[in-house]
């Protein structure tokens, strides 16, 4: 039986290449939070330690499964302040690969004899470490409405339904036609539609798009833009960054005391997301995580932009 009819009108015409994360080696699911839910359900953890400095969506699977969690703090290097002797066989430790710049530390962390979960939502191109439960979000790096990848050796016996994405594509299509600002409300609607979704297989549409992407170009462009900004902002950046040559960052995280910078950038139609507004509700204003949320400007460096765009951003930062 054919998957689709022969003839008739055309659908999206996408090149048939290969996804970056190969499905034979990982599980392709609908959202990254559901990757975490898959891990929590499969491992039957009773307690998980999670960072204050993370997205509130990370709490969804804990609430759905009624699993206990406790927050931990991080230091100026975005590394945990934590006594790993607190972990037993029923507990796990979740760490975020912040901005795609913590691969070296994760290798150190993996050497700990603990139940470790790595959140690579901000680090799509980082390689998973064998035996470590690791998940990725596609839409943080590529123009898709959903989609995530999970590496784990704990397989659920439950048969998963296939997700459908065609009704979530509006904000992506509208942005192409009329621009980001006019499509922003639809983007928020799409975000809301992903809340409390059941665990499902990645949709055919999302798989198709992710199999048509030029990943080598994306990696090269992101690294080029990051390195260019870092060569000029390293001295003034309050966040000390140590990118290794293989890391492909999500953004350039520029920590600054310039309280007007984000507004200046926004006035020039340069939109820098805040990671993460919910942290200010979880923490007091004397905690580092609160300050990081306030002070880090997540400068776009992705494949849509060139060195000329980075130079324009630098002029706004320098206020010239």
Q: What does the model show?
A:
It is a single chain. This protein is of the alpha/beta class and 320 residues long. The protein contains eleven helices and ten strands. An eight-stranded mixed beta sheet has the order 1-8-7-6-5-2-3-4, sandwiched between helices. Strand 2, helix 2 and strand 3 form a beta-alpha-beta unit. Helix 4 packs antiparallel against helix 5 and helix 7 packs parallel to helix 11. It is globular, with a radius of gyration of 20 Å. The mean pLDDT is 94.
SSE blueprint:
Elements: E1 27-29, H1 32-43, E2 47-51, H2 60-65, E3 68-74, E4 80-81, E5 91-96, H3 103-110, E6 116-120, E7 133-137, E8 148-151, H4 170-178, H5 180-193, H6 204-210, H7 215-233, E9 251-255, H8 261-267, H9 279-282, H10 288-295, E10 296-300, H11 307-317
Parallel strand pairs: 2-3, 2-5, 5-6, 6-7
Antiparallel strand pairs: 1-8, 3-4, 7-8, 9-10
Helix pairs in contact: 4-5, 7-11
Report the uncertain regions: none
Q: How would you spell out the order of helices and strands?
A: EHEHEEEHEEEHHHHEHHHEH
Largest sheet: 8 strands, mixed
Calculate Rg over CA atoms: 20 Å
- Provide the spatial order of strands within the biggest beta sheet: 1-8-7-6-5-2-3-4
Task: Report the principal-axis shape.
Answer: globular
Q: Give the termini separation.
A: 63 Å
Please tell me the overall pLDDT.
94
Please give the number of β-strands: 10
Q: Strand content of the residues, in percent?
A: 5-15%
Helix segment tally: 11
Q: Which range best describes the helical content: under 10%, 10-25%, 25-40%, 40-55%, 55-70% or over 70%?
A: 25-40%
Class inferred from helices and paired strands: alpha/beta
């Amino acid at each position: 039986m054919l998957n689709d009819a022969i003839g008739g009108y055309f659908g999206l015409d996408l090149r048939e290449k290969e996804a970056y994360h190969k499905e034979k080696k990982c599980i392709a699911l609908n959202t990254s939070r559901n990757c975490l839910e898959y891990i929590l359900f499969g491992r039957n953890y009773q307690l998980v330690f999670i960072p204050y400095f993370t997205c509130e969506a990370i709490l969804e699977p804990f609430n759905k499964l009624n699993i206990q969690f406790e927050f931990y703090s991080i230091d100026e290097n975005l590394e945990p302040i934590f006594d790993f002797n607190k972990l037993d066989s029923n507990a796990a430790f979740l760490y975020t690969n912040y901005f795609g710049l913590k691969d070296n530390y994760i290798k150190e962390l993996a050497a700990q004899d603990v139940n470790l979960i790595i959140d690579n939502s901000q680090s799509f191109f980082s390689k998973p470490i064998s035996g470590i439960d690791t998940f990725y979000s596609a839409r943080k790096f590529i123009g898709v409405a959903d989609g995530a990848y999970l590496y784990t050796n704990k397989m659920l016996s439950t048969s998963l339904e296939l997700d459908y994405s065609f009704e979530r594509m509006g904000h992506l299509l509208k942005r192409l036609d009329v621009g980001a600002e006019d499509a922003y409300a639809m983007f928020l609607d799409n975000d809301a539609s992903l809340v409390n979704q059941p665990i499902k297989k990645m949709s055919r549409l999302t798989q198709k798009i992710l199999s048509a992407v030029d990943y080598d170009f994306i990696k090269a462009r992101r690294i080029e833009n990051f390195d260019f900004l870092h060569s000029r902002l390293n001295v003034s950046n309050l966040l000390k960054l140590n990118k290794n040559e293989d890391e492909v960052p999500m953004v350039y995280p520029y920590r600054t005391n310039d309280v007007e910078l984000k507004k200046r950038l926004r006035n020039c139609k340069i939109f820098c997301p805040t990671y993460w507004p919910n942290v200010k509700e979880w923490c007091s204003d004397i905690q580092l995580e609160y300050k990081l949320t306030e002070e880090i400007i997540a400068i776009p460096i992705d494949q849509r932009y060139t060195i000329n765009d980075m130079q324009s951003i630098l002029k706004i930062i320098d206020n010239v």
